[in-house]
Amino acid sequence: MTKKKFSNKQAMTEIKVLFEKSKELFGKNKELANNYVRKARNLAMKHRMRLPLELRRKFCKDCYSYLVPGTNSRVRTKEGKVVITCFECKGFTRIPHIKEIKEKRKQL
Length: 108
Ligand SMILES: [Zn+2]
Hints:
binds zinc ion
């Protein structure tokens, strides 16, 4: 096995590619799609990067399933937070609204 060394920018590109693959595979092979989610997450962790919000909404943080709203997940907004319910493990992920995060950044 060769060890590839990515810069953070390359890693982020790779992560986005992995998520694209998950999306493509979701309809055909859920297991494989979830594998790509795990890979993407591992890569992010290796680089100590936080996944962008748009990607964090696309998988379950409990079972790492790739989530498609209306298919295996439900997205609701509640008290200024986005609540994503995963039908695979019945868990839910809460994500603050982007607006809130931007405001927090201003305060820092
Ligand atoms: Zn789940």
